[in-house]
Amino acid sequence: MLNSWLHLLALAIYLGSLGGLWILILTPLPMIHNQNEQIEFLARSLKVYNPLLIGALGFLVLTGAFQITDLKASYRELFARELGVTLSLKLILSFVIIILSTYQSMGVALRFVRRWESEDSIQFKDIQSVANRLRGSTIILVFLTLITSLVGIRILG
User: Fold this and answer.
1) Which of 7, 75, 101, 151 could pair covalently with 63 via S-S, beta carbons 3.0-4.6 A apart?
2) What angle do CA 56, 9, 84 make, to 5 degrees?
3) Residue 27: closest CA among 109, 146, 135
């Protein structure tokens, strides 16, 4: 039972971090008119966002794995027949979420932060490119996470 609550908490933190990225970082970003302030705001914000997202995702994956282990012990021989297709769909969706979250955090956000920390030249088009990739991946991640959650409810259900 505790594992289910921890899994739900991890899901809430993960979705909250995605929502926070959208509401607290990406929405006010265009309202900052000074390019240097935009760069600093984005880089400092992403330094907090990256560990939160990856940490919540890791905790979500671990608690989910523990839940599957418990389900497998409960269902025994019927596990594959009863949950095989649904579980396979959830695992595929989870894998896509992990890959896309890693791309968003490490491939987009962390690279931008590292450029800022090394005092590389960052142009306005670079800020726009990072913001657009973060927006696009956030929309996809929220959608996939909600679908995966619905599939998970079906498994428990």
Assistant:
1) 7
2) 85
3) 135
Residue 76 region by backbone torsions, left for phi larger than 0, else alpha for psi between -120 and 50, else beta: left
Find, among 107, 90, 102, 69, the residue nearest to 146 by Cα: 90
Evaluate the CA torsion angle 140, 96, 83, 76 in order and state its sign: negative
Q: Read off the tokens for 143.
A: 């959608």
Phi-psi region of 97 (alpha: psi -120 to 50; beta: other; left: phi over 0): alpha
Query: Looking up tokens 């259900």, which residue turns up?
Result: 157
Identify the CA nearest to 25 among candidates 13, 41, 39: 41
Stated length of the chain: 157
Distance CA 16, CA 53 (A): 9
- Residue 30 corresponds to which tokens in the numbers above? 């265009």
Q: Which residue has the tokens 């894998």?
A: 95
At CA 101, angle to CA 38 and CA 60, rounded to 5?
A: 125
Q: Consecutive 10-residue runs of the chain (157 residues): their mean pLDDT?
A: 89 96 96 95 95 95 85 69 76 95 96 95 94 97 96 74
